[in-house]
Amino acid sequence: MSTTLASPKRLTIASVPIVGMIITPFLPFVSTPTLWLGLPSAIVWMGLMIVATIVALQIVEHTYLREGGAELDRLEAEQSALANAASTSAATNSPAPITERRAH
Amino acid sequence: MLTVAIIIGIVGIGALGIAGRRRQTELSSWTVGKRDLPRWTSWFLQAGESLTTFSFLGLAGIAFGGGVAALFAVAYLTINCIVQYFVIPRQRELGANRGYLTMADFFQDRFNSKALGKTVALVGAVFLIPYLQLQITGLGLIVQLATGSESARGYSMAVASVLVVVFVIWAGIRGLAKVAVFKDFAMLAALVIVLAGVVAGIGGIPDIFAKVMDTAPSYLTISRPGFDATFWVTSVIVTSIGAGLNTFPHLWPPVLAAKSGAVLRDNVKWLAVYQFLLLIPITAGIAATLVLDPKTKSNFVLLGIAQHTLPEPLIAIIAIGGAAAAMVPAGAIAMGISSLVSNNLLSVKNPKLRFRINHVVVALAVGLALAFGLAKSDIGALLLLTYGGLTQLAPAVAIAIGRKVRIGAVPVNLGIIVGTLTVAVITFGNIPTGGVDSGLISLAPNLVVLAVAELIRRRRLPQVPAERADDVERPVPGHSAVEGHSTVGVEA
């Protein structure tokens, strides 16, 4: 379990489609002219890699949120809200409370 | 009639950028808003780089010459999403805490070096000019090809350039976001129309590829001259490194302006769907090999096949979509150049004067790119430097996003300079590289110089580690941790 976004486990999951795309020219069905369902196999393969990318990132996001990322996101949202409140206060010439200023 | 419709479309795009927006009066709100852009606004800004004039003119042209090797763009843009998922939330976090407005602020702050900030600003601004010209020239070419009129090319470039300057200066990043929404829908419509034209004019997609299989099967493999496996692997790797680590200065404002890292992650994990759209110009480019003269210039392929298969009103929609695909990146690039120059390259303390200078630089940058475009100056070679050159910033970005920065500014600066010069020597010296991307080759001397210089630095100054930890309480001098209100940030 890691709250680090770029943990080894998450990087490994994300690297699967990257490897799949880089090795494309060396795949046997790409190095010889091949049609799948009437389309060039390279186009179908790349379409699958796009889907694999989306799936991999969903898994990575899910594990991150489950392992503490959701709490970090909540804290970040709170900090942003405080910053915006202070910003609005300053814009209307009413100084932000010192506690809010420190929160920045 | 077609020319008039297209010019009206271009004016409409510009008006959209200004409509309903108050004029921005300070550099921070102009560049990054209030750092609170919600999910969908960020989405369309982040998607900007996926659909540009390159998607329109370039990809179909590459597919016309290289067949399915044109998929390399789909590969690097998809990998870009994966790398950015991990990188840009961190860049946004540092930006919000430390008040960055530009990429150069990030370098200056993380390595505690104004000189490095200025080097990055100079490299970024210079290398973006050809990229800006590419967008404006591409727009002119789209209009010329659609209308068949040389004069329409010049008029459309001039009108679009003026509108880009006006809406960028007036509304900043929020105006850009509004036009970006229109651009994505216009591009979608244009590409679907192109696909429909290909199907109606040439035949069903399976029939087209079956004919290509019979007549020129090499278009279905990554093996055509200049588009072999070496080209694929090195281009995909170097562009993924450069774009993934966000080394393009004009792509920083959308990241810094986002409401949170979660917003950026939420978007990036879906943004790869855009790459499905790029399969359309690639298919059109391969289909064009069946109907167009083999000597057709690569940039003419997409609109050539559209004219071959579609009626005039639909050509106008395609041309307006193409114009939008040029104007949004052009606006973002102009913003990137001007903020680097006014904020980092020139040390102007007075905020009002700095903002005025920023406006002048927007106009100058777009004017310069327009002049190069109208004169048909060939600064294309410089464009080759854009990707390779900016990728030389990647090692420094990778070092700087860490929790602590342990490498000195001088070694990083030397590495960037040596890497960039190597790209220039390879490009202008026409040195054969065997198909290996010059940007990737140049990363080697960049890293060697960085490592040797860092070793020397540590031996000479063992007692002074260049360690830079996160410091959320101290904004960059002259900037604010809270956007636009320097006193709050400084006092905090």
Characterise this structure:
The complex is a heterodimer of chains A (104) and B (492). Chain A has helices at 8-22, 28-31, 41-91, 98-103, and strands at residues 35-36, 39-40. By secondary structure, chain A is mainly alpha-helical. Chain A has one domain (8-103). In chain A, strands 1-2 form a two-stranded antiparallel ribbon. In chain A, a hairpin with a 2-residue loop joins strand 1 (35-36) and strand 2 (39-40). In chain A, helix 1 crosses helix 3 (41-91). The relative contact order of chain A is 0.11. By secondary structure, chain B is an all-alpha fold. Chain B has helices at 2-18, 27-32, 39-46, 53-66, 72-98, 103-110, 114-147, 150-201, 205-215, 229-244, 252-257, 261-271, 275-291, 301-309, 312-345, 351-374, 380-391, 394-400, 409-428, 438-460, 486-491, and strands spanning 404-405, 468-469. Chain B has a two-stranded antiparallel ribbon with strand order 1-2. In chain B, helix 1 crosses helix 8, helix 3 packs across helix 8 and helix 8 (150-201) crosses helix 13 (275-291).
Query: Secondary-structure element sequence of chain A?
Result: HHEEHH
Number of strands of chain B: 2
Largest sheet of chain A: 2 strands, antiparallel
Number of helices of chain A: 4
Number of continuous helical runs of chain B = 21
Q: Strands of the biggest beta sheet of chain B: in what spatial order?
A: 1-2
Short recap of the structure:
The complex is a heterodimer of chains A (104) and B (492). With 104 residues, chain A is mainly α. Helices cover 73% and strands 4% of the residues of chain A.
What does the secondary structure layout of this molecule look like, with pairings?
The complex is a heterodimer of chains A (104) and B (492).
Chain A lengths: L7 H15 L5 H4 L3 E2 L2 E2 H51 L6 H6 L1
Antiparallel strand pairs in A: 1-2
Chain B lengths: L1 H17 L8 H6 L6 H8 L6 H14 L5 H27 L4 H8 L3 H34 L2 H52 L3 H11 L13 H16 L7 H6 L3 H11 L3 H17 L9 H9 L2 H34 L5 H24 L5 H12 L2 H7 L3 E2 L3 H20 L9 H23 L7 E2 L16 H6 L1
Antiparallel strand pairs in B: 1-2
Helix pairs in contact in B: 1-8, 1-15, 3-8, 3-12, 4-13, 5-10, 5-12, 5-13, 6-7, 7-8, 7-15, 7-16, 7-17, 8-13, 8-14, 8-15, 8-16, 9-13, 10-17, 13-14, 15-16, 17-19, 17-20, 19-20
